[in-house]
Amino acid sequence: MNMMTLWHLNGWEFAALAFAALLVGFSKTAVSGANTVSLAIFAAMLPAKASTGVLLPILIAGDVLAVLTYRRHAHWPTLWRLFPAVAAGVVAGTLFLVWADDGIVRISIGAILLLMAGVTVWRRRTADAEKEPDGVTTRAGRAKARSYGVLGGFTTMVANAGGPVMSMYLLSAGFRKLGFLGTSAFFFLIVNTSKLPFSAGLGLIDADSLLLDAALVLFVVPGALLGRWAVDRINQRLFERLVIAATVVGGVQLLVP
């Protein structure tokens, strides 16, 4: 990212980025996956690859607020099952970024998100969701955790778009609303923090991007507070539909030139 990108944002462009930052806070404490809209806004206002470096610290700020809000509801057995596969996905995503251009990145992530949404809808129509999120202890559950973990690590490294992938996994595993939010909060705080050296090494995070982050991170807090207010007023069925809808919207936005 260069000084021209930072200092030549007009009022409309900064307002769009501020709204996207607010939406990050909302997504972290209410409807996970909604921040794919934020991803699309950042990619539209800034160079696509550079936008991922600017967005990452903002996501981490939202993760911290989500952990503080839902720390008692995390399901750690699920997290421990996911982390090794996610690490492999992050490494694969880093190598992909070295090779791929912006267009290939957008199309690849958008296609994955739509595929995950379709698989989840199909699964929920053909089988009852598990009552407890303990399916990771079975062979099929471990295989599912590995596949989603690799995809989640890959998409979060390439375009900060791991949220919808992990949302689809947690929904398919039968997580209820608070368990979903608590588990995803710790997951993304750990994963996004671990991505910092990779992003810095790729030149996606520098002094200029951090300066823009300092201005935008202030908008994450009201978004998180709005999300915490809203989540108690959203029933489980509506919550799941909103998560899936946000995933589809984000995937379509990434596929549209």
TrEMBL record:
UniProt keywords, alphabetically: Cell membrane, Membrane, Transmembrane, Transmembrane helix, Transport
Residues spanning the membrane: 82-99, 105-122, 210-231, 238-256
Keyword check for Transport: yes
Protein name: Probable membrane transporter protein
Keyword Cell membrane applies: yes
Cell location: Cell membrane
Membrane protein topology class: Multi-pass membrane protein
Family, as annotated: Belongs to the 4-toluene sulfonate uptake permease (TSUP) (TC 2.A.102) family.
Superkingdom of the source species: Bacteria
